[in-house]
Known about the structure:
Low-confidence stretches: none
Order of helices and strands: HHHEHEEHE
Number of strands: 4
Amino acid sequence: MAQIALDAIDREILIALQANARLPNNDLAAAVGLSPSPCLRRVRRLEKLGVITGYSALLNRTRVGVGLTAFVSVDIERNRKAETDLLRAQIQALPEVVAAHIVTGDSDFLLEVATANLETFSQFVLGTLNKLPGVKGVRSNISLDVVKHAAALPIPAIERNPQ
């Protein structure tokens, strides 16, 4: 997918919506220096272009009963496209996996897994993850504390060509 050209106002809209996705359009427009109609058109354009892919609520994991976060490296038996695609689809269907990446280095996938506690994590790894076809090995790192958890992406500054 190609990068979309963003101007300064688009960037401000994205920064504001990442800070508060429930911001009413009138308040968003005032924050970025537009009137409401052009602001809403820009937001709709950013949605249509796939820059904004959705809106969600950030939850306190502990308060909803998700007390354990682990980072799990998964090795696959063969690194062929068919096996990778099959495992990708299976991982996407697992609700305990809150983020998944195909990575370079010592493993093939890196998963962020969220469960209620160590017992449920153990059941997930032994009863589900290890049994997926093509999984050769699994290594886990349990999170002891969250130092930073940012849902917002850094929006790059506009690059100007010096003349």
